[in-house]
Amino acid sequence: MNCFVHPVMSDLFQAPAVLNNSPWTDDELTSAIQAYLNMLRAELNGQAYSKAEVNRQLRASQLPTRTKGSIEFRMQNISAALYELKMPWIAGYLPAKNIGSTVKEKMVALLRDCGIDFLESYIPTSDHVTLATKVTSLRMQTLGTRPIGNFQPTMVSSITTSYVRDPAVKAWVLQAAKGQCEGCDSPAPFVGNDGLPYLEVHHVMPLASHGSDTTTNAVALCPNCHRRCHSSIDRDNFKLHLYQKIPRLIIEAPTAD
C-alpha cells in the first residue's frame, strides 16, 4: 500500500451513478487520509484550500462509489483518531463522537503508515525540555493558524529534585549587587513585592554539576541575563565574562555523579 502523501488528483472523470454502502477498504481509507493530511498541512501553514473541492475530487477519482456525506463523515473519523493521539485536526471536521474502537484503531494505524511525524511537535507535553524542543521546531516553521490550545490543561504530578540553599548567601549576593545586575550593569528592572530591587541569584557553576552554594559561585542578575546564562547560544562565553568581571568569583570544575 503506497501511503505517500501527495496533492489530491485533478478531476479525471465523473463518478458513476452506482454508490457503495459496503465497508471501506484500506485503500479507500488511505485515499481519504492522504487527502486529509494534505488539507491539514495547508491549514497549519496558513494556505487556502477548499474542503468541498477536495471532496469532489475524491469522488471523481479515488472514491468514485462513495457519497459526499460518507466522505465527510470519514474525515470526521480521521479527526477523531488524531484527537485521540493529541495531535491537531482540521477545524472544519469536528471529531466524530460515535466512532467505534475498531475503526479508531484502524485509522490510527493507517495514519501512522501514511506519515504523521510532522505533527509530533504539536503534541502537548509536561516535560520542560521536550516542550522547549517542540517550541523551537515549530518556531522554525510557518504557523499559519492560531492554535486552539487547551482550556483545561491536564495537571501532572512529578517528583522533582531541589537543593538546600543558604538564605544568607543569597541575601549577601543581592546586597552586594546594590540593585544593579552584575552581568550587564543595568538597574533592577522593577521593585519586587517585598519592596526591594528585583534581581535573581544564579550559580555560575550549576548546583546540578556539584557547584557550591557560596558567594564565590553566585551572582545577582536581571531576568534577561539570568535566562542568557541558561538559554543563549553564547552562554559559555557569558559565563567567562562573569568570571572576568566579578573579582569574588572562583572558577569551579564540574563533576559528575
Can you put this structure into words, describing what you see?
The structure is a single chain. This protein is mostly helical and 257 residues long. It has 2 domains: 1-144, no CATH class; 167-245, DNA Binding (I), subunit A (Orthogonal Bundle), CATH 1.10.30. It is built from 8 helices and 2 strands; from the N terminus they run H-H-H-H-H-H-E-E-H-H. It has helices spanning 26-44, 51-60, 68-84, 101-113, 128-139, 167-177, 223-231, 235-245; strands spanning 200-203, 218-221. It has a two-stranded antiparallel ribbon with strand order 1-2. Helix 1 crosses helix 3 (68-84) and helix 7 (223-231) packs across helix 8 (235-245). It is elongated and about 85 Å long. The two termini are 50 Å apart. Mean pLDDT is 88; it is low at 4-17.
